[in-house]
Specification:
The structure is a homodimer of 203-residue chains. The longest helix of chain A is centred in the middle third of the chain and has 30 residues. Chain A is an alpha+beta fold. In chain A, helix 4 runs antiparallel to helix 5 and helix 5 crosses helix 7. Chain A contains 7 helices and 4 strands; from the N terminus they run E-H-E-H-E-E-H-H-H-H-H. Chain A has 2 domains: 75 residues, Glutaredoxin (3-Layer(aba) Sandwich); 117 residues, Glutathione S-transferase Yfyf (Class Pi), Chain A, domain 2. Chains A and B meet through helix 3, helix 4 and helix 5 of A and helix 3, helix 4 and helix 5 of B.
């Protein structure tokens, strides 16, 4: 088994933090996105979508999509549970993981890809207006998370989960998207300090 | 328990098809999106993101995000399994469900929201160029699905899963987004006829 990693991109970091929380070590193969290695013919065999990360299993099967890779490890190594426990617990983690991904993450990604000069060769055409719209929406999403964290320790409740990992890697990725987390969002700041202080966050 | 439904929108239909595959009946409360009922103060209490569907549990808990609602029912009623079985099976369903959602579904949604005159009050501002870009990307995504279905009966392999439901409701939603599925994609057409012929597709 080996993990084709993408360095600083949020989805690659999400898998690394997840593995660190599980206490698992998987051999990593770096993929140089700056040199467009993920667009090569060889990499396209691994993932026709030309994205990282990709997990290669011992039988040669390729698993892609960071949450699918995380779920594979959750099934093989259930402790500590990071996708929730019980029907409602699992559904709640799914809900918050998706809320973060489909709102804040996709807004941050659009702001970055359409607004950052370094992405001009990756996102064709760049549409600066779309970056601006998404910067505004990301601020609204951050406020919604802050409201929720006013009376929840973690996103899905009392227990740390993949939803927190997704939100952590997303928020840490907002800087290159030129989105500043408003300092008055105190609940979000409290939650971020707690998650960023876990040993896994260094992964 | 009751399901706040949204009629023709793909995520509402996804939950209805899922419930039909499970043989479950849940009382439905219609939500009139045309009249902006999902933006009302009352509905915002149920889902701060102002989206359908929403599942209200008997204790008053609100579950949102269609896949989270489906996963809740999967946990309560595991048969027939629609999220896969075994570690690799579950990860494979997750991968294909996400590939469809994050590519074809989000492309179709962008083409519809930014390109359809009827969405001018829902998507502000509409950016026609973004609709056009996504129409082109959706065609590439359809070709990728066709390639995959050349040697797979269903998206995640031999067994029908939520990934097929997601793809079915997405493809049936491409018409209002003014995206035509190229008729030469024979494997996709074969798969679509099979899925659309299941009794659940009428839900």
């Amino acid at each position: 088994m080996r993990l084709f990693d993408g360095g600083r991109v949020p989805n690659a970091r999400r898998v690394r933090v997840f593995l660190a929380e599980k206490g698992l070590a998987v051999p990593v193969v770096p993929v140089d996105l700056g040199r467009m290695e993920h667009k090569s013919a060889e990499f396209t065999q691994r993932n026709p979508l030309q994205r990282v990360p990709v997990l290669e299993l011992d039988d040669g099967t390729f698993l892609t999509e960071s949450v699918a890779i995380c779920r594979y490890f959750e099934e093989l190594h259930p402790e500590p549970p990071l996708f929730g426990t019980g029907a409602l617990g699992r559904a709640t983690v799914e809900m918050w993981n998706r809320r973060v991904e489909l709102e804040l993450y996709s807004q941050g990604q659009a702001a970055f890809r359409h607004g950052h000069p370094g992405m001009a060769n990756h996102e064709v055409p760049q549409i600066p207006q779309w970056a601006d719209v998404n910067r505004g929406r990301a601020l609204a999403s951050l406020r919604l998370l802050d409201d929720h964290l006013a009376d929840h320790r973690y996103l899905a409740g009392d227990v740390f989960s993949i939803a927190d990992i997704t939100a952590l890697v997303t928020i840490d990725f907002l800087k290159p998207a030129r989105i500043t987390v408003p300092p008055e969002l105190a609940h979000l700041a409290r939650w971020h300090a707690e998650c960023a202080g876990r040993p896994s966050a260094a992964a």
